[in-house]
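Researcher: Next sequence.
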Amino acid sequence: MYKVFVNDKPLFLTNQVEKETDFQIFLLESVDIEQLIVKMFNNKVKKAFLYHPDEKEILKKLKEKISVAKAGGGLVYNKKGEVLFIFRNGKWDLPKGGIEKGDEDIEQTALREVEEETGVSGLKITQKLQKTYHVFKRNGTYKLKITHWYEMHTNYKGTLLPQENEGIEKVAWLKPDEIKEALKNSYENIKLLFEDSKVTTEG
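Model: Next structure:
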């Protein structure tokens, strides 16, 4: 099962449907995906299932209905075990960004974007984390953003430099108890990464 967030509301891609549920259910083959997305952005649909019988085909089918943007990002730790966060659009987020044309692979994208958005260098990828999925609107068109996340470590002790032209207001190293607080004002797909990773948010 895949979890796609539309305006921070869950859209589950699934090959199983529970009988008793308060989710609205749509058939992936026949759904007007844009109409459903608009309803979710307008709070007319709070959560939904998109059903397709073949789990292996399910993401491919969705990609046939909506264009995809690929991005890379980092869950970055320093020597003290603090995690690197950015603050943008009134919410705490992790540094990430889109792949640039050319021969850049997704790991290079993730490293480059973290450095550009935060000023942190000396980054080393230690493991691949899960991918997250969310829908956003750009120039009047809805797109599915698939973000590849990596756990990274650095010994960087220098100044943090928010990339202002990307709307980043501040960059901060947050301790476990501060992470717990920041996640109350973050995005659902960022919270998923912390559920998935071994980082503790218990102060």
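Model: The chain has five helices and eleven strands. The first helix runs from residue 33 to 41.
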